Amino acid sequence: MAIVVENLTYVYDQGTPFQTTALEDISLTIEKGEFIGLIGHTGSGKSTLIQHFNGLIKPSSGKIIINGLDISGEKVKLSELRKKVGLVFQYPEYQLFEETVYKDIAFGPSNLGLDDSEIQRRVIYAMDLVNLDYDEFKEKSPFELSGGQKRRVAIAGVLAMEPEVIILDEPTAGLDPRGRDEILQQIKRLHDEHRVTVILVSHSMEDISRLANRIIVMHQGRIEMSGSKEEVFSHGDRLEAIGLGLPEILYLVKALRERGVPIDQGVINFEGVEKTLINLLGGSR
């Protein structure tokens, strides 16, 4: 499922004294199966952009085309679109409300008119994706779980709709390191094993550098740059100028290069740096 954005502009409170342009002339394409990292300083337009992808808001001008269908048209069935494009907001566990984990995850599929066996299959499938044991957790109250487990239940509720695209807005916000790592591992598994298109909004350059195949950088409602991790992170000064930065490991790489250590420009993560240094030292791990 490809997403094509053509000359998208979005204006809040249009025609009032509070009118604000949140997005201006955005054009981009996201191909099926990509893992996109969407980054930008607070207020850059990231959240406004992703809300267009499943029709929560409509453009002031321009088009959003998904699988060849212009979803900004007047007669589009957004309910059909939202089965295919899942959106997970920050702190999705605040939207949990059912008395059991099973019922919460089953809520979306139940509204599709599916029979009980298909609903159960989807709940089991979604719980497996987020690494929650079905028999152990299905009858538990979601409100008795840890923060990371609640987050996984909320994400499973979206995955039970079996979307082709999943968009996650700061999915690890507020979690402890263990919960954060668990969520990121499940997102990576979702992409790698099921080829779901993933759009990850994050302020963590480390997470983006580990997970994303391509990065889109936003600044003041526009796309500042777009490209592979290597391309984007090669513009450290430019990223810092717009309030972002580099993964911490790249500051170490920069310091080592300045001291004459021959580290290739394509090395952008811890594993790559570790391997390079071991090879340079002529040793083995």
Describe the structure.
The chain is an alpha/beta fold and 285 residues long. It folds into two domains: 3-246, P-loop containing nucleotide triphosphate hydrolases (Rossmann fold, 3-Layer(aba) Sandwich); 247-285, no CATH class. Helices cover 40% and strands 22% of the residues. The protein contains twelve helices and ten strands. Strands 6-7-8-3-9-10 form a six-stranded mixed β-sheet, with helices on both faces. Strands 2-1-4-5 form a four-stranded antiparallel β-sheet, with helices on one face. A hairpin with a 2-residue loop joins strand 4 and strand 5 (69-70). The protein is globular.
Helix content class = 40-55%
Q: How big a fraction of the residues is strand?
A: 15-25%
Terminal-residue CA separation: 42 Å
Number of domains: 2
Main attributes?
single chain; 285 residues; alpha/beta; six-stranded mixed β-sheet; four-stranded antiparallel β-sheet; 40% helix
Secondary structure layout:
Elements: E1 3-12, E2 20-30, E3 35-40, H1 46-52, E4 61-66, E5 69-70, H2 78-84, E6 85-88, H3 101-110, H4 116-129, H5 134-137, H6 147-159, E7 165-169, H7 177-194, E8 197-201, H8 205-211, E9 214-219, E10 222-228, H9 229-233, H10 236-241, H11 248-258, H12 270-281
Parallel strand pairs: 3-8, 3-9, 6-7, 7-8
Antiparallel strand pairs: 1-2, 1-4, 4-5, 9-10
Helix pairs in contact: 3-4, 3-6, 4-6, 6-7
Quick recap of the structure?
By secondary structure, the protein is of the alpha/beta class. It has helices at 46-52, 78-84, 101-110, 116-129, 134-137, 147-159, 177-194, 205-211, 229-233, 236-241, 248-258, 270-281; strands spanning 3-12, 20-30, 35-40, 61-66, 69-70, 85-88, 165-169, 197-201, 214-219, 222-228.
